[in-house]
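hey
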């Protein structure tokens, strides 16, 4: 289960390194990306990237939260290394980031859209150009911060404006630096809460029938109390700003739950549609300018999201809907059309993958590995890929969602989760302690993670192997093992 950092390999055979277009959405669940086969197939343009390239079916984040995952993507490091463990820990922008390494190697680099890693001394570095939303930013007529320390309010819809500004920069680049390869990060605010669609999409899907997911009325039995205690239930915790309407009079609790789910999900999907349209405009631009063959295009999200599964919205948990990042990539020079990989790839692998494709050496502190062997057709086994992946969520009992801090390890068919019971002094974490608890899931028999088998003697060997693997990974990656790790109450044997 070792995970060596490989030597860089050039992904280009024509001399000139490829251009790199990375589109990162915010909270875009795989269940709302058509090519993932989920129930909400509203992304023909993103699906085009997968059809013309590769789809990763088991891409995971290492901490299902916005800023931490963005920091992991940029630096190729886990959050205990890059320091962005919660939403309250700003980014030390002096850290090596892959766009900065590309820039040193001759690339022109730009970042447009959501940053949310702090401002001032935390502003983006490593870019020839950036224009970002302040903090979470606004959906309508948003303010953008500019490199000269100023700001500008732009009229329009954030998703469209981020695409417009990205296309502007690409056109500028082509005029000013036609010989230099480019790297552009397009980072959307959408479809993040509070899910405000563009005016043109306000009535989209109004006539579509929606079923709640099979686990929508989860009773949270057979798992740690963390699931039951989380405050992110569609039927209880969405507020007036989220729902944007008063419920009809006289709804019983079940009817209200269905009503709230529909309000939530339709606005979410409408926001996704605008993102997908933006992706289409970028792909069209590459076609129109003859750059499609020489450009790596990747689409991902900072983490997954619950679309009513387990009754929830939001993320944070290590459960699949929240853990999984959609990740699709197109690079005609290297990737066969319609490829699929089930390798356990991670957000921390993106930096080294991009650098490898560009033929630029990774920084030694980076902790992921290049996906290039997987892009060129190796199976996970042929590539000697990792067979276990580490996860840690630090933001213990934040003031709103109240999800307990946890760490865990997943393999192809098992997942072990440890709610270790405290915030360990992390900024953004409550000092309140909770009972340490464990969960173990058999993902083959229980892919919806409804029934922990932690206490089932039939899984005793798995449990002991995975507990050892969890600690081994923590040590290998340089993370602490929380002090209450071994003093669990739930399911102690
Ligand atoms: Ca996010």
């Amino acid at each position: 289960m070792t995970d060596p950092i490989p030597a860089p390999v050039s992904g280009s055979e024509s001399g000139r390194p490829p251009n790199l277009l990375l589109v990162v959405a915010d909270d875009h669940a795989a269940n709302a990306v058509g090519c993932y086969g989920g129930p909400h197939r509203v992304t023909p343009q993103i699906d085009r990237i997968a059809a013309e390239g590769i789809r990763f079916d088991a891409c995971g984040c290492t901490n299902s939260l916005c800023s931490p995952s963005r920091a992991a993507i940029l630096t190729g490091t886990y959050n205990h290394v890059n320091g962005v463990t919660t939403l309250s820990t700003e980014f030390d922008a002096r850290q090596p980031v892959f766009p900065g390494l590309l820039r040193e190697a001759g690339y022109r680099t730009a970042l447009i859209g959501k940053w949310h890693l702090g401002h001032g001394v935390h502003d983006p570095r490593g870019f020839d150009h950036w224009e970002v939303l302040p903090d979470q930013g606004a959906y309508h007529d948003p303010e953008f911060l500019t490199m000269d320390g100023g700001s500008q309010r732009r009229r329009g819809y954030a998703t469209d404006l981020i695409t417009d500004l990205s296309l502007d920069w690409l056109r500028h680049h082509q005029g000013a630096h036609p010989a230099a390869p480019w790297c552009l990060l397009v980072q959307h605010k959408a479809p993040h809460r509070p899910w405000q669609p563009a005016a043109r999409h306000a009535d989209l899907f109004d006539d579509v029938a929606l079923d709640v997911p099979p686990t929508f009325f989860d009773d949270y039995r057979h798992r740690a109390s963390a699931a039951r205690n989380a405050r992110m239930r569609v039927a209880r915790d969405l507020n007036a700003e989220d729902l944007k309407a008063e419920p009809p009079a006289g709804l019983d609790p079940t009817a209200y739950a269905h009503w709230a789910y529909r309000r939530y999900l339709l606005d979410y999907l409408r926001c996704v549609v605008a993102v997908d349209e933006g992706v289409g405009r970028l792909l069209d631009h590459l076609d129109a300018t003859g750059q499609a063959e020489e450009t790596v295009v990747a689409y991902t999200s900072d983490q997954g999201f619950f679309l009513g599964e387990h009754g929830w919205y939001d993320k944070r948990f290590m459960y699949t809907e929240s853990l999984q990042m959609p990740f699709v990539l197109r690079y005609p020079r290297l990737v066969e059309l319609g490829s699929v990989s089930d390798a356990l790839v991670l957000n921390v692998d993106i930096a080294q993958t991009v650098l490898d494709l560009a033929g630029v050496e990774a920084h030694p502190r980076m902790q992921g590995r290049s996906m290039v062997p997987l892009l060129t057709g190796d199976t996970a086994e042929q590539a000697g890929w990792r067979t276990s992946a580490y996860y840690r969520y630090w933001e213990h009992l934040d003031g709103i969602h109240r999800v307990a801090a946890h760490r865990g390890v997943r393999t192809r068919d098992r997942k072990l989760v440890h709610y270790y019971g405290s915030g360990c002094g992390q900024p953004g974490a409550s000092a309140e302690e909770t009972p340490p608890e464990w969960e173990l899931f058999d993902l083959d028999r229980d892919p919806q993670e409804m029934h922990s088998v932690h206490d089932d003697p039939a899984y005793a060997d798995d449990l002991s192997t995975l507990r050892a693997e969890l600690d081994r990974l923590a040590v290998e990656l340089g993370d602490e093992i929380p002090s209450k790790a071994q003093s669990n109450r739930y399911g102690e044997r």
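The first strand starts at residue 19 and ends at 25. Residues 389-477 form a domain with the Arylsulfatase, C-terminal domain fold (CATH 3.30.1120.10).
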